[in-house]
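TL;DR need structure tokens for one chain.
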Amino acid sequence: MALLHQACEKWGFFQVENHGIDKKLMEKVKQLVNSHYEDNLKESFYESEMAQRLNSKDNLNDTDWENNFFIWHHPKSNINEITNLSKDLRLVTMNLSS
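>> reply
TL;DR here they are.
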């Protein structure tokens, strides 16, 4: 736990290895999340204030770099609250939680 705390505090993130999740399933999730971004989020990102700042290179220090969506399954799933997820992404995500 101390190493996990240190990683979060010093680096801001951590990576879990040897977690037992099938690599093919992880690649499928990655592919589907990337497709979701392309289909649903990319256009609005490029229209966003953050992207405009990147283009102009003005005030980059004031940019909010966090732009994401969360899917969780435990203790209760929120997957039905995210209405524009593809059927494939819903199914593969449900496989991660079982």
